[in-house]
Write a structure and sequence with these properties.
One of its GO terms (biological process) is response to oxidative stress. Helix content is about 30%, strand content about 15%. With about 350 residues, it is of the alpha+beta class. About 15% of the residues have low confidence. It binds a DNA duplex (13 and 13 nucleotides) through helix 8.
DNA sequence: TTTCCATGAGAAT
DNA sequence: TTCTCCTGGAAAT
């Protein structure tokens, strides 16, 4: 899944692609028909990411008060992803979300401006090509796509663009003047009020990617618990946005053993880990990829991670075999030598 | 073709 | 701890 950096990318993408536009909102799959009806025809007036939660604000109905803003709350979970397509003015990556192969390739392409390239500016051209390839022959009316037409603000001279038929189980389709975003496989997708949104956020810990992310709150939350720090990093109420890759890699880079109890990790170590996460994740937002290895430790361009998914292979730094064990239902990876084992309690 | 698996999380046991 | 939900690409059959 999409860890927090992916969700922040999405918040940026939606603001840029659809900000201020009235959108046709539908649920081709049908499971979100009621929610879609509430948002259909309303303008996207704001986007926000907090940890792995994405919030999209829609303008209130004319007869609703000022606080009638409704939020679409989406959590991608393990499988969710957004797929984008549109005309040449619609500059979006092909897809953002669960790391299916197609998605990964696309994100790589976006992050490598030195790819050989097409005549025009590389990333823009790539997007358009993908969008065209993905477009199915414009079949007849997607329900919800033809009514509630978006505002006609197409720039003069832009070629006509038609959305492709939804592919797969599309929970939500957001259709603007220049492009479309399809959501598949989310864990959560619902329309909430501002108060309900705030309630969700109160349960979340600080997010290293947000300006209001409070590193000291993270340090205090970890040191208050006797649970293993490897579990605490995956607890969204301790730190929001960290997932299985950032957990393993941040612990490695801090040289902290995942089984060490939270309260036993020195505060200075945790402060450094927070700063490191902020940096790593910001890089993830910029590039769409998680890369945690320092250039000097990267023996091969494929060496993106120190320990994640490297069990049995030599540690890039010390050569010791990377270890793996399940923790809280997920696969956990660490280097037994670089990350010294915690003292065993008698 | 069937099965397995994944960057998640909440509920049930 | 284990189950359950959601999807689709890859690996296994």
């Amino acid at each position: 899944m999409p860890e927090g950096h992916t969700v922040h990318r999405l918040a940026h993408a939606f603001a840029e692609l659809f900000g201020g536009q009235r959108l046709a909102v539908s649920s081709p799959q049908g499971r979100f028909a009621d929610g879609a009806a509430l948002l259909d025809g309303h303008a996207l007036v704001g986007t926000e990411a907090h940890g792995k939660q994405l919030f999209l604000a829609f303008s209130p109905a004319p007869d609703a008060g000022a606080d009638g803003v409704r939020w679409l709350r989406v959590h991608l979970g393990l499988y969710g992803s957004w797929t984008f397509a549109g005309d040449e003015t619609f500059r979006a990556p092909h897809a953002i979300g669960a790391p299916r192969r197609r998605v990964g390739e696309e994100e790589v392409a976006l992050a490598s401006p030195d790819e050989p390239a097409s005549p025009e500016s590389p990333d823009e051209a790539d997007d358009v090509v993908v969008a065209i390839e993905e477009a199915a022959p414009a079949t007849d009316a997607t329900p919800g796509a033809t009514d509630a037409a978006p505002e006609a603000d197409a720039s003069p001279g832009a070629t006509a663009w038609h959305p492709h038929a939804p592919r797969g189980a599309v929970r939500v389709r957001l259709l603007g003047a220049h492009g479309v975003a399809d959501l598949t496989g989310p864990t959560a997708c619902e329309v909430v009020t501002a108060e309900e949104k705030a309630a969700v956020q109160r349960r979340l810990g600080p997010d290293p990617l947000r300006p209001d992310g409070d590193g000291e709150a993270f340090v205090a939350a970890v040191r208050a618990r006797r649970r293993a720090v490897g579990e605490l990093l995956m607890d969204q109420s301790v730190v929001a946005g960290v997932g299985n890759i950032y957990r393993a890699e941040a612990l490695y880079r801090a040289r902290v053993h995942p089984l060490r109890l939270g309260r036993d990790v020195p505060a200075t170590r945790l402060r450094a880990m927070w700063a490191d996460l902020a940096e790593l994740m910001a890089d993830g937002v910029a590039t769409g990829r998680i890369v945690t290895t320092r250039p000097e430790d990267r023996h091969d361009p494929e060496d993106r991670w120190y320990v994640y998914h490297r069990s049995g292979r030599p540690c890039l730094v010390c050569g010791t075999k990377v270890a793996e064990a399940p923790m809280a239902g997920r696969r956990l990876f660490w280097c037994p030598r670089c990350q010294r084992a915690p003292r065993r309690r008698p």
